[in-house]
Amino acid sequence: MFEQIKRLGTDTAIYGISTVLARLLNFALVPLYANTLTTADNGVVAYLYSFIALATVFYSYGMESSYFRFAATNETGTPKQNFSTPFYAIGGVSLLLSAGIAAGSAPLAEALQLDRSLDTVLRYTAGILLFDALTLVPYASLRLQRRASFFALTKVLNIVLTVTLNIVTVYGLRWGVEGIFFSNLCASVLSFVILLPGTLRQLEAGFSVPLFRQLLAFGLPIVPVGLSGVLLQIVDRPILKLLMDDASLGIYQVNYRLGIFMALVTGMFEYAWRPFFLTHAKEPDAKRLFARVMTYYLLGTLALFLVLSFYLGDIVKYIFPPAYWTAQDIVPLIMLSYILSGVGTNLNAGIQIEKKTGYLFPTSLAGSVTKLVLTFLLVPWLGVMGAAVATVLGYLMVEATLYPVVQRVYRIEYEFRRIGILLVTVTAAFFLGRAAGESVFLKGAVLAAWGASLYLAGFFTPGELRRVRSLFGNRP
């Protein structure tokens, strides 16, 4: 089991190094936007990207997940058919949708309550959606082939170009919002071009209708799930715009982006997790392996949560203007929502393995409806903090409703005693760290005490302790 988890960790590390580098480069844009754009402009950017996230679901309509499921086994069709059919299916729909957005950009801007001058930005958006959709299956193929290094390189190059062009267009040329989306479009085209040779090698001229029917049968039930999942992520943005204003949304978005450090971990885990559980699904100890992965995932993310909760706020004041400081308290809540999202990614393994994707919609819908309702209720009372609280409770609802469903489909005995120890000790350490105020020494002492409390509470197994000792050259 340890070697299998080690391999998952290796792939996660490769994805992680590139993801960390790429996200950190991307994160450099946050202070650039905060210090160059107005809070209202930042609100407009957040508003538009929320609609891009929603549109992406329609562009892929479950084909990426279907590709993973069928290409992993080749149970229907040849490897080239399993690549070509979903690629053509996504490409055809994406061309139609992007052509429609570009042609109707002016009335669409009006419908979205945007300034008519932003119709050019909507045409850029149409291009971004098209080229990002055309890379979905090629990127999925790289993950399935465990070509993590090449996958990582392309992602880093994408972000490097994005950041470079943002510096030129937003800071140098002062193109404002238009410069952000122009830069994104250029980076999306670059990714498509880099992946094109590998894409052409895997394509064939034919389109398998029987395979397409099976891909649709597997993928279409995921579309409502994807919509609910995206709404769970972004529904607070248009509500904040409606109930407050663009400036408040901009302040919320900039602080929300500070959750990037937790998003890094959960994102790179997701990249490695899906190929991992599909590869090991038929092994005799697969369920015990998956349970252990859940424990280790929570250990790593909760440790990072404590460190960031203690020290991130002190750093923010050096990179953001004072207008953004008022919403710093949302950051721990946003990090918790990312952790819960990763828990859902882990739980989803059983449903993917058993091809029961239809069960995902009710749980995802429960989370998005919870967040939608609570955002409307809490924002008038708590402001942007209300949106953050609604986000955490929305994700919690997803996991609370998903767990019993998954257990009926693919029962796994999770290590609840160890998970309970983690939750209790992390909660205590978090509030002790808050009580420590701005003392770096006291916060460090709390972190050390938390690690010791895990040992004293019996969290670690004898095998884990032996491995830790061996790392330091000590023999049991």
Structure summary:
This protein has 476 residues and is mainly alpha-helical.
Question: What is the fold's blueprint, element by element?
Answer:
Elements lengths: L1 H26 L1 H8 L2 H22 L2 H9 L7 H25 L1 H7 L7 H16 L1 H9 L3 H25 L4 H26 L6 H11 L2 H13 L1 H8 L2 H11 L3 H21 L5 H31 L13 H24 L6 H23 L1 H26 L6 H20 L4 H17 L5 H10 L5
Helix pairs in contact: 1-9, 1-15, 2-9, 3-7, 3-12, 3-14, 4-5, 4-8, 4-11, 5-7, 5-11, 6-7, 7-10, 9-10, 12-18, 13-14, 13-18, 15-16, 15-17, 16-17, 16-20, 17-19, 18-19, 20-21
Molecular structure report:
By secondary structure, the protein is mainly alpha-helical. It has a domain of 158 residues. Helix 2 packs parallel to helix 9 and helix 15 runs parallel beside helix 17. The mean pLDDT is 87.
Major β-sheet annotation: none
Tell me the total number of β-strands: 0
Instruction: Calculate the terminal CA-CA distance, rounded to whole Å.
Output: 20 Å
Q: Mean pLDDT across all residues, rounded?
A: 87
Helix count equals 22
- What is the structural class? mainly alpha
Estimated radius of gyration: 23 Å
Q: Detail the poorly predicted runs.
A: none
* Helix fraction by DSSP (H/I, runs of at least 4): over 70%
Specify the overall morphology: globular
